[in-house]
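Entry for the shared binder. Reason: the reviewer on the internal report wants the predicted structure included alongside the sequence.
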Amino acid sequence: MQDRRAWIAVLAGAAGAVIAIAAMEFYAARAAMPVMAIPFGTSIVLVLGSPGADAAQPRALIGGHLISTLVGLIVVTLAGPEPWAAALAVGIAMAAMHATRTFHPPAGIDPLLVVVNAMPWSFLLVPVAAGAVTLAVFAYVWHLAVRQFDWPARWW
């Protein structure tokens, strides 16, 4: 019986990921921004597939993306879109996420995207902040309504 429940939870998480990715694709097309420039694919997999993980909690999800993107924006402003700057930004973002207890591994791609593509400061608000908050709300509703799983373990 336990194995069946585990598989139902896995399938429910996978179905939620399908819906979330489809919505992300839809909004990316509407905004004329390639979905690869919106850093939430792996966050969706983590938050819906391993909801008990520390990195899947809202503080890490939202904070990790915000801090990593902010680091990328600061680095690209100071150093420009250079390959070495992108690498440096990822390292600094990792340290910053650990220091702020917002470690969210999928957010590690944010500074790379920001620096390589010389993203504007508005990228921090849309799509990053808006997307991270929307994903947290979606995950809350999905886990509660579909999986009947108490997520998150803690909000902050």
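Summary line for the report: Residues 2-147 form one domain.
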